[in-house]
Automatic annotation (TrEMBL):
It catalyses: GTP + H2O = GDP + phosphate + H(+). The gene is ftsY. Involved in targeting and insertion of nascent membrane proteins into the cytoplasmic membrane. Acts as a receptor for the complex formed by the signal recognition particle (SRP) and the ribosome-nascent chain (RNC). Pfam families: SRP54, SRP54_N. Residues 305-318 form the SRP54-type proteins GTP-binding domain. GTP binds at residues 138-145, 220-224, 284-287. This is Signal recognition particle receptor FtsY.
């Protein structure tokens, strides 16, 4: 069933998989394809097209161009601080580089946005241990469970033996939901009763993963801890348990953020990111929103790579983040 979504299953050894950079290069050769592959960004693209029109209408650089540029970036939810930084940077470049037309500013904006997103960042796998452990955090409703399932399906398709741990033990429904997704994508889920110790669930899952010979364990951790202190204490405990089995683990600590909750979600994410050693972000629900500029605010504010983006509710709707193509898609048809 998964092959229907992902195409023909590759035969290669997962350890020799293509890096994101290789994939990016390959995709760059298929430019006409970008618009179609990124069609989920259509509403955000409209915001950037508005920006394109602004730039086109002004063939000399006036103050109103800067004002309209600012309005468009804020409208796409690039966020106040990133927007101001971008405008400052572009004004500086316009002056240094003697820019005379809006087109030149637009090209510079593309460059700055691409730069802001950084290089594509693939998932990190253990170099020392046969088992890679990925922890996932995120608030209620962010799309955490769905993203875990999508990631499991993708990794399984790439040839990994994946297991899930229901470490978010606060709600029976959360455990059931993960079980359900596990069944759907045909990946085993280790769980215990609601309210049991998440550390004990992780311990069980590590044992099970090792005895089964799984090479990736994805741990769903609590998303609704009220304070940073609680979250950190729980993560410390879980980390200690993981390191008894896998000394260089956990290999990823990913936060799932819903793009439609905008700048408020970012405030909370920033607080967590500073102290818990976040290694990456999954931005969900980029489909159907005009707020896709949120990705730039995330990259600018959190200083950790965006590893995946959620592009819909189906299991195949998870895309490794491709910074260059993401920006290219926003400026398509201009
Ligand atoms: N459109 C869209 N919907 C998504 C995406 N990711 C998740 N969702 C939907 O968002 C809703 C919440 O997703 P969950 O995975 O249940 O969220 P959660 O963070 O685990 O939240 P709880 O179940 O409340 O713990 C579901 O209806 C998902 O189908 C996405 O990328 N795009």
């Amino acid at each position: 069933m998964l092959n229907r979504f992902f195409g023909q299953k590759p035969q290669e050894d997962p350890k020799q998989k293509k890096t994101n950079e290789d994939v990016q290069e390959q995709v760059a050769e298929q430019q006409p394809d970008i618009e179609q592959r990124f069609s989920f960004l259509s509403r955000t693209r409209q915001m950037f097209n508005r920006l394109g029109n602004t730039v086109q209408e002004n063939d000399i650089i006036t103050d109103s161009l800067w004002d309209e540029l600012e309005e468009s970036l804020l409208g796409a939810d690039v966020g106040p601080s990133t927007t101001l930084w971008l405008i400052d940077r572009l004004r500086e470049r316009a002056s240094d580089e003697n820019m005379r037309t809006g087109r030149q500013v637009q090209q510079a904006l593309r460059e700055e946005l691409t730069q802001l997103l950084g290089k594509p960042a693939a998932l990190r796998f253990s170099k020392q241990s046969p088992l890679t452990v990925i922890l996932v955090i995120g608030v209620n409703g962010s799309g955490k469970t769905t993203s875990i399932a999508k990631m499991a399906a993708r990794l399984k398709h790439e040839g990994h033996d994946v297991m899930l741990a229901a470490g978010d033990t606060f709600r029976a429904a959360a455990i059931d939901q993960l079980q359900e997704w596990g069944n759907r994508v045909d990946v085993p889920v280790i769980s215990q009763k609601p309210n049991s110790d998440p550390g004990a669930v992780v311990f069980d899952a590590l044992q099970a993963a090792q005895s089964r010979g799984s090479d990736v364990l994805i741990v769903d951790t609590a998303g609704r801890l009220h304070t940073k202190f609680n979250l950190m204490e729980e993560l410390k405990k879980i980390n200690k348990i993981i390191q008894r089995f896998v000394p260089d683990g956990p290999h990823e600590l990913l936060m799932v953020i819903d793009a439609t909750t905008g700048q408020n979600a970012l405030l909370q994410a920033r607080k967590f990111a500073e102290d818990i050693g976040l290694t990456g972000v999954i931005i969900t629900k980029l489909d159907g929103t005009s707020k896709g500029g949120f990705a730039f605010a995330v990259a600018d504010d959190l200083g950790v790579p965006i590893k995946f983006i959620g592009t819909g509710e189906k299991v195949e709707n998870l895309m490794p983040f491709e910074p260059q193509n993401f920006v290219a898609a926003l400026f398509a048809q201009q």
